[in-house]
Amino acid sequence: MPYDTQPKASHFINGQYVEDTAGTPIDVIYPATGKKIATVYAATPAIIEQAIVAARTAQAAWALMTGTERGRILRRAADMIRERNHDLSVLETYDTGKPYQETSVVDATSGADALEYFGGMAATLTGEHIQLGENWVYTRREPLGLCVGIGAWNYPTQIACWKGAPALACGNAMIFKPSETTPLCALKVAEILHEAGLPAGIYNVVQGMGEVGGALVTDPRVDKVSLTGSVPTGRKVYAAAAAGIKHVTMELGGKSPMIVFDDANIENAVSGAILGNFYSSGQVCSNGTRVFVHKAIKEAFLKRLTERLGDAVIGDPMDPATSFGPMVSERQMNIALRYVKKGQAEGARLVTGGKRVDCDGFFMQPTVFADVTDKMVIAREEIFGPVMAVLDFEDEEDVITRANDTEFGLAAGVFTNDLSRAHRVAARFEAGTCYINTYNDAPVEAPFGGAKNSGVGRENSKAAINHYSQLKSVFVRMDDVEAPF
């Protein structure tokens, strides 16, 4: 391996790398070759205890620092991440299999954006004064305490920062558990934060599978849980957190609609569909995998889409020319391939793709189905792979009803040159994150999150502050206190 992918130790606790080989070994597999590139060990109960004690011990002093002081450290870390973008992007590519062409401009950079944004916001987190005649009330915005972040495997560096930045800006401590599939990058985030001046114990990383997450979520010393993951996992974590009346943010899955009207710019709509189905090899929770295309332009859309997919460069993710990489694991690839068989069995028309690429690693062709109907499994269930379902429509009212007929509500998009229709449709989408004439843009300045079964709470923007802090009201009476006796 030309790059050292084996971390110094499995966990980062109290400002240093920590190892405990008594934990279950977790092999890290490079998706482009199927070969092992590192081994980490799941956290033992002793490691979990060490992390919780370190975080609880350090948090009080961190909370007492001014927002300006906290923000300065976060912004310094953001600068360091940008300076080391190449190495972090290489590691992210080894961790996830995503092409360097993608990781070098999206993953570490968006993590740095979050640290910079919330670092800048930290000094602005104030309460308010409410005058009531001679008396008044003032509010204090206070941290929650210890936050647990549970990450997904598709954007490990970004998610480690998306959860960590607002938590730290508000004065909390954090324990972050990456996905066991991609355990490497969060360790680098923790290392950089510490190097930037973050006090020991404020941002910790522990590895492990579901039982480690469960132990963290149910510990009474944990005040908040933020999960990025699937709906079934979300239900379990939400229920466990609810038992302890903990604060929660859930960023879960989706089966999002993308509506392309007959007046849309077809080239832009095809670009949106590619971004919403094949970026990160289709492994994005907000993907618009139900593409409703007006019958009048359906064949033209499919023709241009197929031509554009022919330009995808599938190959070595480390080659900057590669634009489409492997799926994260053999298991995830096989799940997607099974959905292809279901789509064919249900009578959907396979326009392109549908097969595993004949090479090492977990590569699957970008796949498009047409003539898909609303009841087909490939139009109902989240596949989390490069499989697009194209559905026909003619009537605006009908397509909005069909677009909203799902348990999910993470994202939705519309392509049209009719300004009124664009905003009208966006207003009626039952989804938390919507797009007009674009898809999957996720600037840190904008709230990101879902409706219905796609989650609760919001990540990014000033909205995230409400999910990592609490308000205390203080009533001050200046006149005499009256009592009935």
Give a brief outline of the structure:
Helices cover 37% and strands 21% of the residues. It has 14 helices and 20 strands.
Structure overview:
It is globular and about 75 Å long. β7, α5 (156-169) and β8 form a beta-alpha-beta unit. The relative contact order is 0.14. It starts with 10 loop residues before the first strand and ends in a 9-residue tail after the last strand. The protein has 14 helices and 20 strands. With 485 residues, the chain is α/β, with parallel strands linked by helices. The model has no long low-confidence stretch (mean pLDDT 97). Helices cover 37% and strands 21% of the residues. The strands form five sheets. The protein has a seven-stranded mixed sheet, with helices on both faces.
Spans with pLDDT under 50 lasting ≥5 residues? none
Number of helices: 14
Q: What does the overall shape look like?
A: globular
Distance between the termini: 81 Å
Structural class: alpha/beta
Average pLDDT score: 97
* Topology, number of strands: 20
Main pleated sheet: 7 strands, mixed
**Largest sheet strand order:** 14-15-16-13-12-17-18
What amount of the residues lies in strands? 15-25%
SSE topology:
Elements: E1 11-13, E2 16-18, E3 25-30, E4 35-41, H1 45-64, H2 67-83, H3 85-96, H4 100-121, E5 129-132, E6 135-143, E7 146-150, H5 156-169, E8 173-177, H6 185-195, E9 203-205, H7 210-218, E10 224-228, H8 231-243, E11 247-251, E12 257-260, H9 266-275, E13 290-294, H10 298-309, H11 330-345, E14 349-352, E15 367-372, H12 377-380, E16 387-393, H13 396-404, E17 411-415, H14 419-428, E18 433-436, E19 455-456, E20 469-476
Parallel strand pairs: 7-8, 7-10, 8-9, 10-11, 12-13, 12-17, 13-16, 15-16, 17-18
Antiparallel strand pairs: 1-2, 3-4, 5-6, 6-20, 11-19, 14-15
Helix pairs in contact: 2-4, 2-6, 3-4, 4-5, 5-6, 7-8, 9-10
